[in-house]
Amino acid sequence: MVWYQDTEAERRLSKCVEVTRSLGDDYLLAVNLGNLAFVVFRQGGVDGAAPLLEESLTLAPGLGNGFLTSQVPNLKGITELERGNLQSAEANFRECLTVARELKDPDTMIVGLERFRAGSLRLPVPSAGP
Predict the structure, then answer these.
(1) What is the DSSP string of 99-116?
(2) Residue 5: which pLDDT band, with cuts at 50, 70 and 90?
(3) How many CB atoms sit inside 10 A of residue 55's CB?
(4) Which CATH number covers residue 61?
(5) CB atoms inside a 10 Å sphere around CB 114
(6) For residue range 10-53, what is the model confidence (pLDDT) as tens digits?
(7) What pLDDT score does 20 carry?
(8) Phi, psi angle pair for 98, to nearest 5°
(9) 29 domain residue, yes or no
(10) d(CA 48, CA 40)
(11) Which domain holds residue 84?
(12) What are the backbone dihedrals phi and psi of residue 34, each rounded to the nearest 5 degrees, phi first?
């Protein structure tokens, strides 16, 4: 079993979000929100992942972490595709690609382009993560 399939993962990450929120640590909060959203999404909660990603997206740009800044919109794009919101998905994938280009991160660029292509052609979305 992979970590995000653990039945306790959502509860544990929710506690992490609660603790980091109380500490006022925006960096860890953005990371934990993104991780929680990933778990919720992978366990079938597309609609539950969206608000977590929205909050993480508001924090990520000001934190100076390019990986976080590219991966949050990437996952948000996937959730938007699953919800049928193609324009929002496209905007999120474009943001992911913009940051990936700035970071010179070809792996993230490839993944972002692949998911954007799948969405624009209405193909099944490639898996998020391992």
Answers:
(1) HHHHHT-HHHHHHHHHHH
(2) low
(3) 19
(4) 1.25.40.10
(5) 14
(6) 899 999 999 999 999 888 898 899 889 888 988 877 788 888 98
(7) 93
(8) -60, -50
(9) yes
(10) 7
(11) 7-120
(12) -65, -45
> What percent of the chain has a predicted confidence (pLDDT) above 90?
13
Tell me how far apart the alpha carbons of residues 39 and 36 are, in angstroms, rounded to a whole number.
Answer: 5
The answer to whether the Cα torsion of 52, 53, 59, 60 is positive or negative is positive
Q: Rounded to an integer, what distance in angstroms lies between the CA atom of residue 83 and that of residue 96?
A: 19
pLDDT at 130: 44
Is 126 within the bounds of a domain?
no
Which range is least confidently modeled, 11-25, 35-49, 56-70, 91-105? 56-70
CA angle (4 as vertex; 59, 102 as ends), nearest 5: 40
Residues 79-108 have a mean pLDDT of: 82
- Residue 113 in tokens: 């382009």
In-domain check, residue 115: yes
What is the chain's mean pLDDT, rounded? 79
Q: Any idea which residue has 């990603």 for tokens?
A: 53
Amino acid residing at 35: N
Other Cβ atoms less than 10 A from the Cβ of 96: the count is 27
CA–CA distance, 31 with 21 (Å, rounded to integer): 11
